[in-house]
Amino acid sequence: MGHFSLYHCFSVLLLIWAKLGDLYGRKLMFIIGLIIFTIGSGLDAVSTSISMLHIFRAIQAIGGSAMMSLSFAIIGTTFNGKRARYCFRDIKFNYRT
User: Fold this and answer.
1) Environment class of 46 (CB within 10 Å of its CB; exposed 0-12, middle 13-18, buried 19+)
2) What is the DSSP letter of 25?
3) What is the mean pLDDT of each run of 10 residues along the chain (97 residues)?
């Protein structure tokens, strides 16, 4: 049950971060997401109980959803035409292995 709600939260946050990136700038939102993810990772390292770990992993998921949704948008706007196609192809091949 806990994993099910965490995945829904992550999916909704993907859309929210994408919208915030459109409104306030993708680079700024990506950096904020990276900072949130890094803070969550640091807190994971110092957690002393499993409940603290779950909470800190949720913080990490908030930052991770920002980086996941905005990275493809940044690549898509930075490169155009054939170069964008090659960038996305390389990303696809890297995720397979």
Assistant:
1) exposed
2) -
3) 64 89 94 95 93 89 90 80 65 52
